[in-house]
Amino acid sequence: MMSATEAYLVRYRNMVFKKKLYKLNPQDEPPELIRTHITKRKTKTVKITPRSNERKVREMFSKRVSGTSVGLWFLVSEHLRLGSWDLLKGWTASGDNDIAPRMAMQMVHESALCVTGIRSRHSLCHQGFELINGLPYLVSDHSIHELLDKHTIAEAFQLQLNLGQLRQINGHYKGDLLALDPHRIPTHSQRIMPKKKKLPKEPSKKVLQTFFAIDVKTGQPLGLTIGSSGKTATKASVELLEMTDKILFQPPHTKPSGLILADTEHFTVELLKYIKQKTSFDILVPAPNYVKIQKLIKGLDYQKMWAGYAIAQTDYKFNEEKQSFKLLAERNGEIQSQYQYKAFISTTDQSALKMLTENYDKRWTIEEFFNFEGAMGWNRASTMNFNIRFGKMSLALIAQAAAYQFRQKLPAPYKQWTAKTLADNIFHGIDGDLRVIDDTIVVTLYNVSEELNLKRHYENLPYILETEGVDPRVPWLYNLKVDFRFK
Description:
Elements: H1 4-14, E1 32-37, E2 43-48, H2 50-63, E3 65-67, H3 74-82, H4 84-92, H5 100-112, H6 129-132, E4 138-139, H7 141-149, H8 153-169, E5 177-186, E6 207-215, E7 220-227, H9 233-248, E8 259-261, H10 269-278, E9 282-286, H11 291-298, E10 303-306, E11 309-317, E12 324-332, E13 340-346, H12 352-359, H13 365-373, H14 386-407, H15 412-415, H16 419-427, E14 432-437, E15 440-445, H17 454-458, H18 461-467, E16 481-486
Helix pairs in contact: 3-14, 4-5, 4-8, 5-14, 8-9, 8-14, 9-10
């Protein structure tokens, strides 16, 4: 006869298979506390899990949604073509069902709409905007700030690098003519910091410094970096060029051999030596009006190209430097007493005439970029916490890339619209509604101008994407497809 202990052990052994039955239906992960806008003026902290988020999103679709933000849904297909969702998952270190990449997608789409100021003044609630991000609510400034604060400058650089490589694959860059330029944004921060002058006669101001690298031929940004007033153009340029080299050089392609068009601020021996010794790029940079340089170029023998224009070139060495660079000079005017001189330094033996008369004028493409695209998030300095601001600016690059792909589908006159005009007239300027039919979100747009030629590119969108080899299922919308109707 078995003892009570032996009987218990026999029973326990027979029940071992039930030891982890509780894992068959695991409970949701601990909910996240997220502050959201429930109206334009009211916020509410909600508990959310991936499962409850999906349930609420599907519930909202089942009720249908009307609003003026439905034009923004054109960008969904551009995100699929670009690979935006994988970029956001990588930046947030999250999966398809997590909340964080959807919050990042909200910031991307706010940039596309050129939204500035706090969300309580520019609330986009109840117009379908939250649904395009895979969320049933609009996340408030507080929660967005917390998400950005979790990430570092290095993570934002990696996001830009990954985006740039995807854009290179998609043909957004030519890569043979680039421009570097500092872009300074005035700030009213009370922090103690150096002040900068934009022009010699202007008063000094506190600024947030950004530095951009642009592909001159396509007008598209390769990347940007950020710094306080004390950051030098040389240090920022080295960071940008390291990233640019990785973007444009992707095996099995050969090393790029492009020409960089720079500003006078880049006239430093450190930057010129770095470019000549450690990159496959060349640079053309205007020289300051130093007495030494002016004396040198006035004594050169000039070759007349046409009436009123002549060029000359010679070798130039910085003080106490053994390495020499090419000095190119141009002279304007026919009368000797009215001659005007301009000097440039270069690391290449390319045609001086072509560089000075054709290439360098194209450098102003970068100013056009700021004028056309600055409203997406590069014309204001809301915080001097660099990891937060840099993260937001890097996410804006994703919005700019998707909007660029969308803009290529517009007829010629509309391709020249600024980012703000595009947002006001299309992304946030078309009435429509959203509904789900089977496995497809149907976006109905009313009274869209036929001149925009959008019906050709977006009606029967799942079929169009499949023919391009793109999966039409939208992962942040729980694998629903998106299609458009024009009424």
